[in-house]
Write a structure and sequence with these properties.
By secondary structure, this protein is mainly alpha-helical. The chain has two domains: about 60 residues; about 120 residues. Helix 4 packs antiparallel against helix 6. The longest helix has about 35 residues. The chain is flat, with a radius of gyration of 19 Å. The protein starts with a helix and ends with a helix. About 20% of the residues are buried.
Length: about 190
Amino acid sequence: MTSPASAFQPAINALEKDLADLERQANGLLQSINLLREKAGLPPRPGGFLASSGHGPSGDGPSAIKLHSDTFTGKKLGSAVREYLEMRKKSGADAPATSREIFDALKEGGFISGAKDDATGLVVLRTMLRKNTTMFAKLQNGKYGLRAWYPNLKSPKESAAGETDAADGEDEDTQEETATDKAAAAS
C-alpha cells in the first residue's frame, strides 16, 4: 500500500517548480519596478524571493547562488556567462539557463554591457551565445550550457566543416564580444 506522503509527492514537486518559476518572474518585475523608481528618484521597493535556489527557505533543495553587486563587474561577456553557468552547476540547481535568466543574473551581478538598453543587451547576449559554439551549447529545451558539460554533443562546426579547434575558444569569445559590442554601439 502506498503511503499518503508518496502519493502526493508528484503534485508537491510540480507545485514547487511552479512556485520557483513565479518567484523568478516576481523578482524580474521587482527589478524593473526598482529600476523605474531609481530613475524617478524614489527609494527601491523592498521585497524579493529566493527563486535562484529553486526552493523556499527550508534549505531542503539546492543552495542559492550568491551574486554580489560586483560579481561580474569588469568581466568580458563570455567570461561572465561561463562563470555564472559554472556557479549554477556548483549550486546543485538546474545548470543550463535561458538567455533571459543569464541576462538578469549578469545585470544583478554588476555586468556592464555597454548596450543602450536592456533589449539591445539581451540581443547582444543571445548573439554571443549562438555564435560561440566552442564554449556554449544550446539545448533542445532552449537553455544554454557549457559545451564541456556535453562531451558527446556534436558541434555544429564539426558536422559542417569537419573539425573544430577548441583551443581557440577564449580568443573567439573575445573577438565575438568585440564585434557584438561594436554592433550594439552602432545601433
